[in-house]
Write a structure and sequence with these properties.
By secondary structure, the chain is α+β, with helices and mostly antiparallel strands. 34% of the residues lie in helices and 35% in strands. The chain has a five-stranded antiparallel β-sheet, with no helix packed on it. The chain is rod-shaped and about 90 Å long.
Length: 115
């Protein structure tokens, strides 16, 4: 009888431990996946600099604005951005989370940027 009780106790402990571990593994993976899906990379060309408000245009025609007070942006600069889609399908509410300089486009190539 004692062996049966030890076996049942051990089986119960293993079952509960497995259930708790599985729950937290799935919950953590789900939270991580949901969090990472809202961010995406984008590259754009600076089209206008108005004090600290930078306007950029992507090759697909999407236009975004972001604030940056470094005073280093000029028209024709290429900027790599991390975007937040805010969990929506629409691109119109997307937000520039981070922007970094990544090159420039010559004046004669600016018109070729937007298709």
């Amino acid at each position: 009888m004692k062996k049966l009780m030890k076996f049942i106790t051990l089986l119960g402990t293993v079952t509960v431990t497995t259930a708790i571990t599985s729950y937290f593994t799935v919950y953590t993976a789900k939270a991580s996946t949901e969090h990472n899906q809202s961010f995406y990379p984008e590259t754009a060309m600076v089209t206008q600099v108005n004090e600290d408000l930078i306007t950029v245009i992507c090759q697909n025609g999407n236009i975004f604005k972001f604030k940056d007070n470094t005073e280093e942006w000029i028209k024709g600069d290429i900027c790599s951005m991390i975007m937040d889609n805010k969990g929506t399908v629409s691109v119109y509410d997307d937000k520039v989370v981070s922007a970094r300089y990544s090159g420039y486009v010559n004046d004669d190539e600016m018109d070729k940027w937007v298709k």
